[in-house]
Amino acid sequence: MRANPLTIAAAAVFAVGQLATPSARAESFGIDPAHTSAVFSISHLGYSYTYGMFREASGTVEFDKDDPAVCQFQFAINAASLDTMNEKRDEHLRGADFFNVKQFPQITFESSSVEKTTGADGKAIYNVTGTLTMHGESREVTLPMEYLGEGSSPFNDYRVGFLCQTTLKRSDFGMEFMVGPIGDNVGVTVSFEAVRK
């Protein structure tokens, strides 16, 4: 029995379409500022570490846990929102010696690629490579985003959460004031929830 040529053609088109269509589509999320923490630490004289945080952050995430190729991460932090619980020090950090927030009001990150790996504890890690811009300087960095989970919340929405822990050199971003007495390496911890749109 000969196959119908139209049936063969339809099957071929369907197969090509299946190959061209990702197995899943990335979902869009918006970062929840109330459940986002951006914390930094830096050595002072080698005798202690000073800790601070940024209180205002926003961003979007395109996420599919099974297909890192379609994932995207974008963040913006209000540099003037830094807080080390010392008003005099905070004003100095906002000034020209450090963040110079009047000239460079935002710290931004935009991803260019994402790769998925597995951590020692078996948790998924998304290595997010992209452009970090701070103090008017842009550098390519790779941020390890530990996937904490996703699901429905008591707020009648659907959320996904991540933890990022990394180290940056402030001198790479043109902040060289008192490198030595004040550390060059800055520990950065960011944890956030993002709500599905």
UniProtKB/TrEMBL annotation:
Database matches in Pfam families: YceI (PF04264)
Keyword line: Signal
Keyword Signal: yes
SMART domains, alphabetized: YceI
The Lipid/polyisoprenoid-binding YceI-like domain, residue ranges: 28-195
SUPFAM superfamilies: YceI-like
Signal sequence extent: 1-26
Name of the protein this chain belongs to: Lipid/polyisoprenoid-binding YceI-like domain-containing protein
Lineage: Bacteria, Pseudomonadati, Planctomycetota, Planctomycetia, Pirellulales
